[in-house]
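Reviewers of the previous submission asked for a worked example of the structure-prediction workflow described in the proposal, so we include one complete record here. The input consisted solely of the amino acid sequence. No template or homolog information was supplied to the procedure at any stage.
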Amino acid sequence: MLNCPEVLPLFAFFLAQTPTRLPETVVVETRQAAPLAEASPSVSRLDAGTASEQGISTLTGLLGSAPGVYATEQSGEGSVGSLLIRGTNSSQTAVLLDGRRLPQGFSNSYEIGRYRIFGLSSVEIMRGPSSTLYGANALGGVVDLRLPDPLTDKSGGTLNLEAGAYGRTSLGFSYLTNNADGKSAATQGTAFALTTSHDDGWRVNGAREASTGLLKSEWRLSANLVFDLIGSVDRGNAGLPGQATNSIPASGDPNDWQKDRGWMLSPGLRYDTDTLSAVAFWSHGGSTVTSYVDGTDPFYGPYLYYQKFNLDRDELTAFADWKVRRNLTLGLGLSYENSRYDQQALAAGSTHWEDTMESFGVWTRADWRATEADRFRAAVRRDSFSDFAGKTTGEFSYARTLSKELTLHAKAATADRAPSANDLAYGTSGGLPLRPEANTGYEVGLRHEDAVPNALNWTLVAFQNNLTDLIDYNPVDYKTFNIAKARTQGIELGAEARPAKGLRVFGAATYLDSKALTDYAGVVTAGQPLLRRPHFVLSLGTEITPNENWTFGAALNVQHGRVDYDWNSYARINLPDATFCRLWVRYAWNDQTELSLRIENLFGETAPPTALGYGAQPRSAYVGLTRKF
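From that input alone, the workflow returned the following structure tokens.
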């Protein structure tokens, strides 16, 4: 067990040893490219290429390495994933593709287990309330999957093959091309990526097949105007393993399965001058989930749920920032969304429901650099909804440059999460209209970006989220109403460095204190910690490149203080602490060809990563081949 005296030396170790050389700019904090050194310490940029070289292939696996983020897969690589940012739920984080919101499901969750990182350039994370720029569902934060830039990135392609334990096979192909010619910059370019994988699964009925396609094309229409087209498509077929409350994998039900389909196509325009930056885009997309689950309930007898969940979504968004003075920028934006839900009953025991929900949001922001050392930002947004009450959110932040390398940041913000289709489909308790869930968050932190290349870089943040109007189910009629309250608070630290030639060290640590402030239908009592959120998460890693051919890496992930609810005994259970170890080796055959080996869960950790019945995937080994051209 870890306690505070043991935790503090670990934090000191990070400050002394392990930081991150991140790329120079990020987009997620302001929706415009800005220097990373000026970003809040609550913003992280994860390099997708570096993660792929470490054998990480899923979005869940990548996000789990960031401070303040707990991301886990329920049944092995590519399975259903959970994303908890600073203790908030999976449905309270917005997930974007190059700034465009991906279509959320009926529960407002994004099923992050469906997404692969092959073909991405980076993944940017903004932790904490973020609704003023991104609207509803950004209550806990924002994850933005960034694609390569076809007009500036180098042309070429990559082919990746991998095979290994439990029948895993995967294939990835990416290619970027543009019309750059010598010293002439490109005016048209396209980047696309295709991935497909198959896993037999380590549990009965745990097989999965998944495919993902990504596209970004850009055309420079003039010196200041660029037209782009962003696209994605994904499909997955998976068995649904049964649950077990002991260490033996459940027998499963071969009849249970789920099919996922998702897509998005988004044309847009970007206009840039020295004083004006403007973006406008339209996104059309949707998702289809078909699920079949049957069984026998000890109280109600046999049951069958066979349903299809269809979502079609359109969004129109436009925003602009004007530099009205050298030290003052003002911004204005607006967004309209139309989501059409159709829950089709394919069996007698299922329920049919359909609805169309609309929303309109408008926001304004100001960025004032009062002095060379002091910077203030403020924003306010109003969202109106067709099916529930509207919401006004805002934020205010202050940054002070303490030295050339160190910046202090402080922020207070509010955010909301719109009621989901699932919250509305079966009626509300007493017929009362639902309100959006709300969060008032506070944070203060430091960002250190060393001026010396490859030196120590780190972020440290203390935060608190006050969650109100959380939507829960009335235990009497099992209909939804706004009742629950909760609080999450903690400290998060991230760092990376290259202290010597051929050596890279990195890590993240998160201390989280979560507490329910109201009863949750008998599952959580006021004053108790929220379920499934580790009290402490520690990630440590190192990568050594002794020569131009070989690379060796190892990483540890420690999870402490998790609580779950056992529906068999109707009692809360303290889950065991868990330590997961992974190794990877790469060998550069030549400039274009690389061989790799990775081993997951080296010590065979069996502790459930998220919920009873979903133990960790046993020790697994995979070999890969990467060819660049």
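Residues 4-17 form the longest helix (14 residues). We consider this example representative of the routine output the project will generate in years two and three.
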